[in-house]
Specification:
By secondary structure, the chain is mainly α. Helices cover 69% and strands 0% of the residues.
Length: 123
């Protein structure tokens, strides 16, 4: 049964390769001004969530903290899609989403705020 979950997780990464890994370096790159393709799309977020479910259920030695930061950034980017027109405001939304992922993953609201301030001040 664990092999089935591991295959499920690898299938999610095969569908969207940008969903592999923790996601924190990609989000930090985006917040620092580097536009990575497909990093904040719905397909990437869905494959990230399904991959984490499969890998944690399969007993693979992965953490769920990094993908929660990436998932928070994807959700905030989706929320800002229709209303935000300039790039700086979109980065602010993504920083808030990443901060909410930090808050959720570590149960540390002040840590999420500090993460957001650190990343927001860098670009």
């Amino acid at each position: 049964r664990q092999l089935l979950f591991a295959m499920w997780a690898s299938g999610a990464v095969m569908i969207e390769p940008m969903s592999g890994g923790s996601g924190i370096p990609e989000v930090k790159c985006f917040l620092n001004g580097i536009d990575l393709p497909r990093i904040l799309r719905v397909k990437t977020g869905l494959c990230k969530v399904l991959g984490v479910i499969g890998s944690v259920s399969g007993g693979l030695p992965v953490g769920k903290e990094g993908p929660m930061v990436h998932s928070g950034a994807v959700v905030s980017a989706i929320c800002s899609q229709g209303t935000v027109r300039d790039d700086k405001t979109k980065r602010d939304y993504v920083a808030c989403g990443a901060a909410s992922g930090v808050c959720t993953a570590f149960s540390a609201p002040i840590g999420g705020i500090l993460f957001s301030l650190e990343e927001g001040a860098s670009y």
